[in-house]
C-alpha cells in the first residue's frame, strides 16, 4: 500500500469539477476507484463484501478559543468588571481585574471531569480477502497516531491557518511551531499559562471489531511458473479496546488459524502429497495493559505512559511442511518485518520537540537528575515493560522424500522485564518442557511393490535417531546503558505508581531495590 503525496481535501475539491470542462471534452471524475490504480503504485490489500459500522458518542461542548479569556473569569469577576465602571471616585488603575493567570483557582483533576465518550463497533461480513502486506499494518498504526496520538490539538474552524506545521495559532499556545531553538524556548516558557479546565476533559473510548471467515494471502517474491503464495484462513477475529484517562486495555482473540503453503520441488509421483503443507494454531489470545499518570506534570500536558504489560497465550501448534515450504514462509516473514520497520512508511512528526518525563522540552528541562548523562530521558526510556508468552505445546514435522524430522515440545514459557539493578537493564527468561527430536527414514516392504496399493508403500518407517531433553531453562541478562539508569527508573516509577500501586511487581521490585541501596560493610 503506497500513500500518495496529496491531501484528501484536494481530492474532494477536484471531485466537484463538472464533467464537461470548457473545451467540451468529458473527463473522468477522479474518485477513489479511478485514482487507486495498480499502475499508479496502489496495492489492493483488503476486500470486504459488506461492513457494518456503529458509532455512538457523547460530546461536551468546546467553547470558541476567541472567547476563552472571558470564559476563564468567574461570575463574580465579570460582575466586578461591569460594576467598577459605575462606582464614583475610583481610579482607572484600581479597576484592573485580576487576570485568569493571577486568579486563585483550585487545581483541577481531569479524572474528576465527565469524559467524552466514544463507542465504535465494526463488524465485517464473512469471506473477506486480505493481503498481509507490511504497509497495511503501518496504515492502522498511522490511524491511531493521527487521531489518538500525542500531536493532536483542538482547532477552531473560524481560524485561518495556512500551514499547521509552520504556523503558530494566535489564540492558543498549543499550536505547532517551526523548527528552531528560539521558538521552542518561547513555547516552553509560555506553557506556564493557565489552562481552561474544560480543555482537560479526558476520553472514554471503547472499540469492538469482529471479523468472520477471513481468507488471507502471504505475498512473497516469485515467478509466473513458481508456486502460489501461502494462504491463511481464520474462522473469527475479535478485537476489543477500552481507553480511559488512566489506562488503556487491549484484547485480541483469534480462532484456530490455518496456513497452507505449497512448493514446486520435483519429487516422485508417489510423493505428490508433499507438495501441500500446512501449519495450524489452535488459538491465540493477546491482552495488553497500558498505564498512564499525570503525577508531577504541568497542568494541561499529556499523561505519560509509565507501564506497558503484554500477555500472550497460544494454544497448540502443529505443522507438516517441507524445507522449501518452510523457506517460503521465512521469506514472507522477513519481507513483512522489513516493510513494517522501513522508514519510508513512517509519518513525519509535525513537532520536532521531544517531551521528557517531566512534560516539557527535554533540552530545557531543569529537573533532570545530575547523575544521568545527556538530555533528560523520556517516558519511553524509563517506563516499565513486561511481556509474557505461553504456548501449550508444539508438534512439528519437517518431511521430505524418504525422511522426516519430528520436533515435539511441551509447555513453552517466555518472559521479559526491564526492571532490574544497576548492572542489568533487561532480562529474558524462557522455559521449555519435554523437548523431543526424532529422525525417521523410510523402509520399503519386502513384498513386491506391484502387488500392494500405493497408499501402503509408505507404511514402514524406522526411527534412525532421537534426542530427549527434560526441562530446559534459559536466563539472559542484558547490560544496562549506564549504572544510574535504574536510579532514574526507580524515581520515575515511584512518582507515577506510588499512589495507585497498580503494578504489583513494580511495588515488590522497588521495595527490593530500596533495601539494596545501603552499601554492605567489608568484613
Automatic annotation (TrEMBL):
Boundaries of every Bridge-like lipid transfer protein family member 1 N-terminal domain copy: 1-504
Bilayer-crossing regions: none
Disordered, as annotated region: 88-113
Gene Ontology biological process terms in this record: synaptic vesicle endocytosis
N-terminal signal peptide: none
GO cellular component: presynapse
Stretches with biased composition (Polar residues): 95-105
Superkingdom of origin organism: Eukaryota
One Pfam family hit: BLTP1_N
PANTHER family the record matches: BRIDGE-LIKE LIPID TRANSFER PROTEIN FAMILY MEMBER 1 (PTHR31640:SF1), TRANSMEMBRANE PROTEIN KIAA1109 (PTHR31640)
The protein, known as: Uncharacterized protein KIAA1109-like isoform X2
Annotated organism of origin: Castor canadensis
Amino acid at each position: 500500500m503506497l500513500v500518495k503525496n496529496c491531501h484528501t481535501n484536494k481530492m474532494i475539491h477536484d471531485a466537484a469539477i463538472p464533467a464537461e470542462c470548457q473545451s467540451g471534452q468529458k473527463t473522468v471524475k477522479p474518485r477513489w476507484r479511478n485514482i487507486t490504480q495498480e499502475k499508479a503504485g496502489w496495492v489492493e490489500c483488503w476486500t470486504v463484501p459488506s461492513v457494518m459500522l456503529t458509532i455512538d458518542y457523547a460530546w461536551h461542548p468546546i467553547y470558541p478559543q476567541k472567547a476563552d479569556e472571558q470564559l476563564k473569569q468567574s461570575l463574580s469577576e465579570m460582575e466586578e468588571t461591569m460594576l467598577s465602571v459605575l462606582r464614583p471616585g475610583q481610579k482607572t488603575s484600581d479597576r484592573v481585574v485580576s487576570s485568569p493567570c493571577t486568579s486563585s483557582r483550585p487545581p483541577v483533576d481531569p479524572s474528576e471531569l465527565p469524559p467524552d465518550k466514544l463507542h465504535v463497533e465494526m463488524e465485517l461480513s464473512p469471506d473477506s480477502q486480505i493481503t498481509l502486506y507490511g504497509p497495511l499494518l503501518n496504515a492502522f498504526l498511522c490511524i491511531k497516531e493521527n487521531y489518538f496520538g500525542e500531536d493532536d490539538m483542538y482547532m477552531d474552524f473560524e481560524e485561518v491557518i495556512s500551514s499547521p506545521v509552520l504556523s503558530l495559532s494566535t489564540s492558543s499556545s498549543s499550536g505547532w511551531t517551526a523548527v528552531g531553538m528560539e521558538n521552542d524556548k518561547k513555547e516552553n516558557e509560555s506553557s506556564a499559562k493557565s489552562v481552561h479546565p474544560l480543555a482537560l476533559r479526558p476520553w472514554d473510548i471503547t472499540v469492538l471489531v469482529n471479523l468472520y471467515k477471513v481468507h488471507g494471502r502471504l505475498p512473497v517474491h516469485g515467478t509466473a511458473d513458481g508456486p502460489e503464495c501461502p494462504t491463511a484462513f481464520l474462522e473469527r477475529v475479535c478485537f476489543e479496546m477500552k481507553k480511559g484517562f488512566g489506562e488503556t486495555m487491549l484484547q485480541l482473540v483469534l480462532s484456530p488459524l490455518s496456513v497452507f503453503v505449497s512448493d514446486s520441488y520435483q519429487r516422485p509421483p508417489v510423493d505428490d502429497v508433499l507438495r501441500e503443507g500446512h501449519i495450524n494454531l489452535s488459538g491465540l489470545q493477546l491482552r495488553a495493559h497500558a498505564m498512564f499518570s499525570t503525577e508531577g506534570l504541568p497542568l494541561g500536558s499529556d499523561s505519560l505512559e509509565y507501564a506497558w504489560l503484554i500477555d500472550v497465550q497460544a494454544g497448540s501448534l502443529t505443522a507438516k511442511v517441507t524445507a522449501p515450504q518452510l523457506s517460503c514462509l521465512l521469506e514472507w516473514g522477513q519481507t513483512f518485518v522489513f516493510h513494517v520497520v522501513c522508514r519510508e512508511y513512517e509519518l513525519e512528526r509535525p513537532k520536532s520537540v521531544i517531551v521528557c518525563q517531566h512534560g516539557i522540552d527535554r533540552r530545557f528541562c531543569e529537573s533532570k537528575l545530575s547523575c544521568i548523562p545527556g538530555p533528560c530521558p523520556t517516558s519511553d526510556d524509563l517506563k516499565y515493560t513486561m511481556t509474557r508468552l505461553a504456548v501449550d505445546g508444539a508438534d512439528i514435522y519437517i518431511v521430505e522424500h524418504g525422511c522426516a524430522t519430528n520436533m515435539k515440545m511441551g509447555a513453552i514459557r517466555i518472559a521479559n522485564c526491564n526492571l532490574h539493578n544497576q548492572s542489568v537493564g533487561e532480562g529474558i527468561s524462557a522455559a521449555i518442557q519435554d523437548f523431543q527430536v526424532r529422525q525417521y527414514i523410510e523402509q520399503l516392504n519386502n513384498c513386491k511393490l506391484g502387488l500392494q496399493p500405493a497408499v501402503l508403500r509408505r507404511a514402514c518407517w524406522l526411527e534412525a535417531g532421537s534426542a530427549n531433553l527434560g526441562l530446559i531453562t534459559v536466563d539472559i541478562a542484558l547490560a544496562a546503558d549506564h549504572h544510574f539508569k535504574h536510579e532514574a527508573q526507580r524515581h520515575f516509577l515511584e512518582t507515577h505508581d506510588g499512589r495507585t500501586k497498580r503494578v504489583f511487581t513494580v511495588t515488590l521490585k522497588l521495595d527490593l531495590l530500596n533495601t539494596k541501596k545501603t552499601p554492605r560493610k567489608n568484613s
